[in-house]
């Protein structure tokens, strides 16, 4: 249970609650939601099983794990290279993730500062200035690092156990609030009633593919290093399915919150889409639209705003504390660094990257998100699917997956999963990548 909560905490975060609703609004509403949910189970879930299995099989950092799956020098080098590319991608994701997490902190404190009469502080925290963005980003990174330095069980697992239930409670309360606003039900219809003519749109498909991998933290080593901590008594396919269900459920609930709020905001005179149907300032849409809606409720609205952005801060922290783990594990095991020193070193490097992105925020933030989630993560997941099904020997694969699932060989899962991850998963991911290019 601790592993499922921690792994779900790794998967559930900004990808679900910040990125998913924006992608949904930009790509046809319910049509995107439908494709995203399909990809989550037909592509992300098998990749998650493969990544967890490699991690548990080798019980080491992802560089050593990927390199050890073959005895051929070329495949060992390619596996290690894939793992290193995953760590670099994870560092980039952590860097821009912390910017958004910092904004969440700023916007959760701003209403409180406003109620306390500190209007100047409130405006500075919510003003997206370079100085305020750097300060709140560094604050977010410091919180993450302090948690991670305590280790996996004392740090990540304990904090995810505390934070995840709060996330669900706040989501439920705020969804009920959003649906009672004028325009809220219109947004719910957009979110739940798909336009099937848009389902095969190539931009929608690659966005949904990237979103399914991004929201579940796949391809970058997070789940692989979590798999190395997973008990061999655990039923791995079942555990992966539970993590997928939790992640997809939170994304779906987040959409039920954000999309109705967006349409409710239009009743308050806020413009969401331009003449071409694109979102205004997509990266900052949540921050620009929702406070305007909350302001209509006076003091109560300020409290609701603080609760909402506290929710987003919790979601971001549950993921960011897990994002550092694969990089830290590699630095500790391969470079013999002390864990605390490795944590702070990674934070310093990420802080430098974040600062550069903030200085050129309008250009670099969207570029970093697109490069990491729509190109690198699908490519890395393609390699993990290949290594988890083609490179690893089938007898070892069966032996590893059978631990915690003794009846695996006679199950429907084993009749489908090996050829599915060998042929269908890599084929679909490669097809979508080529189409996007």
Automatic annotation (TrEMBL):
<dbReference type="Pfam" id="PF00209">
    <property type="entry name" value="SNF"/>
</dbReference>
<dbReference type="InterPro" id="IPR000175">
    <property type="entry name" value="Na/ntran_symport"/>
</dbReference>
<feature type="transmembrane region" description="Helical">
    <location>
        <begin position="239"/>
        <end position="265"/>
    </location>
</feature>
<keyword id="KW-1133">Transmembrane helix</keyword>
<dbReference type="InterPro" id="IPR047218">
    <property type="entry name" value="YocR/YhdH-like"/>
</dbReference>
<keyword id="KW-0813">Transport</keyword>
<keyword id="KW-0812">Transmembrane</keyword>
<feature type="transmembrane region" description="Helical">
    <location>
        <begin position="375"/>
        <end position="392"/>
    </location>
</feature>
<feature type="transmembrane region" description="Helical">
    <location>
        <begin position="75"/>
        <end position="105"/>
    </location>
</feature>
<feature type="transmembrane region" description="Helical">
    <location>
        <begin position="342"/>
        <end position="369"/>
    </location>
</feature>
<dbReference type="InterPro" id="IPR037272">
    <property type="entry name" value="SNS_sf"/>
</dbReference>
<feature type="transmembrane region" description="Helical">
    <location>
        <begin position="167"/>
        <end position="184"/>
    </location>
</feature>
<keyword id="KW-0472">Membrane</keyword>
<feature type="transmembrane region" description="Helical">
    <location>
        <begin position="299"/>
        <end position="321"/>
    </location>
</feature>
<feature type="transmembrane region" description="Helical">
    <location>
        <begin position="125"/>
        <end position="147"/>
    </location>
</feature>
<feature type="transmembrane region" description="Helical">
    <location>
        <begin position="204"/>
        <end position="227"/>
    </location>
</feature>
<feature type="transmembrane region" description="Helical">
    <location>
        <begin position="29"/>
        <end position="54"/>
    </location>
</feature>
<dbReference type="GO" id="GO:0016020">
    <property type="term" value="C:membrane"/>
</dbReference>
<protein>
    <submittedName>
        <fullName>Transporter</fullName>
    </submittedName>
</protein>
């Amino acid at each position: 249970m601790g592993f499922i909560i921690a792994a779900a905490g790794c998967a559930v975060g900004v990808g679900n609650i910040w990125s998913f609703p924006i992608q949904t609004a930009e790509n046809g509403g319910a049509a995107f939601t439908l494709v995203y949910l399909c990809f989550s189970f037909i592509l992300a879930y098998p990749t998650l099983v493969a990544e967890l299995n490699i991690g548990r099989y080798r019980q080491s950092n992802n560089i050593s794990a990927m390199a050890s799956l073959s005895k051929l020098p070329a495949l060992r080098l390619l596996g290690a290279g894939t793992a290193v590319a995953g760590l670099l991608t994870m560092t980039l994701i952590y860097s821009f993730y912390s910017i958004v997490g910092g904004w969440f902190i700023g916007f959760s404190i701003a209403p409180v500062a406003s109620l306390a009469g500190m209007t100047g502080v409130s405006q500075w925290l919510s003003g997206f200035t370079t100085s305020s963005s750097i300060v709140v980003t560094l604050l977010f990174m410091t919180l993450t690092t302090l948690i991670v330095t305590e280790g996996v069980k004392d740090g990540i697992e304990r904090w995810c156990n505390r934070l995840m239930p709060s996330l669900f409670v706040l989501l439920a309360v705020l969804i009920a609030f959003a649906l009672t606003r004028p325009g809220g039900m219109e947004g719910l219809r957009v979110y739940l009633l798909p336009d099937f003519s848009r389902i095969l749109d190539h931009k929608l498909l690659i966005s949904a593919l990237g979103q399914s991998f991004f929201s579940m933290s796949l391809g970058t080593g997070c789940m692989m290093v979590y798999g190395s901590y997973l008990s061999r008594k655990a039923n791995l396919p079942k555990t992966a399915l539970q993590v997928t269900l939790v992640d997809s459920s939170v994304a779906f609930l987040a959409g039920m919150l954000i999309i109705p709020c967006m349409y409710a905001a239009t009743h308050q005179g806020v413009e969401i889409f331009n003449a071409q149907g694109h979102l205004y300032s997509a990266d900052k849409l949540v921050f620009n639209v929702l406070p305007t809606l909350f302001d209509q409720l006076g003091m109560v609205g300020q409290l609701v705003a603080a609760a909402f952005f506290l929710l987003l801060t919790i979601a971001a922290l549950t993921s960011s504390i897990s994002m550092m783990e694969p990089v830290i594990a590699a630095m500790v095991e391969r470079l013999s660094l002390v864990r605390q020193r490795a944590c702070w070193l990674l934070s310093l490097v990420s802080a430098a990257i974040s600062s550069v992105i903030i200085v050129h925020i309008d250009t670099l933030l969207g570029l970093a998100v697109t490069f990491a989630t729509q190109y690198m993560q699908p490519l890395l997941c393609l390699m993990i699917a290949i290594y988890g099904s083609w490179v690893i020997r089938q007898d070892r694969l069966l032996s590893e997956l059978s631990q915690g699932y003794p009846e695996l060989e006679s199950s429907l899962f084993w009749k489908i999963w090996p050829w599915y991850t060998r042929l269908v998963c890599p084929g679909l991911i490669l097809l979508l990548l080529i189409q996007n290019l």
